[in-house]
Amino acid sequence: MTTEELRINIEKALDEIRPFLQADGGDISLLSIEDDKLVRVQLEGACVSCSVNQMTLKSGVEMTIKKFAPQIEQVINVEA
After folding, report:
1. CA distance 80 to 65
2. Rg of the Cα trace of the chain?
3. Helices vs strands, H then E, count in the chain
4. Taking the model in full, what pTM does it have?
5. CA distance linking residue 55 with residue 34, whole number of Å
6. Pairing of strands 38-45, 26-34
7. Theoretical Cys-Cys bridge with 40: which of 13, 31, 34, 48, CB 3.0 to 4.6 Å?
8. Residue 59's pLDDT band (cuts 50, 70, 90)
9. Bridge partners, residue 76, by sequence
C-alpha cells in the first residue's frame, strides 16, 4: 500500500467514525501519518473535554483505522 493509499484508507476510517463523534458534538482531524505505522489525530469539540475520550480513541478510532489499514500500530491524540 502506497503512502497515498494509506492516507485515503485512514480518511475512510475517520469518515466511518465521524458521525458518532459529531452526534455528541465532537469531531476528529487527521494530522499526520509517520513511518506508515503511527497516526496522529486531533479530537475536536466536545471530544476534547469528554471523560472517556481515551476509550473512544482506542476502542473506536484506533480499531476502525486498523480495520482499514492493518499496518497501523498506534493512534495518538495531539491536544490543541
Report:
1. 21
2. 12
3. 4, 3
4. 0.91
5. 22
6. antiparallel
7. 31
8. confident
9. 40
Q: Cell numbers of 32, please?
A: 499526520
What contacts 24, CB < 8 A, 6 or more positions away? Answer: 46, 47, 50
The grid coordinates listed for 17 are: 467514525
Cell numbers at residue 61, please? 478510532
Residue 37: pLDDT band with limits 50, 70, 90: very high
Residue type, 8: I
Residue 1 has pLDDT above 90, yes or no: no
Q: Which residue has the higher pLDDT, 80 or 18?
A: 18
Q: Are 46 and 29 in contact (CB under 8 A)?
A: no
SS (H, E, C) 43-62: EEEHHHHCCCHHHHHHHHHH
DSSP 72: -
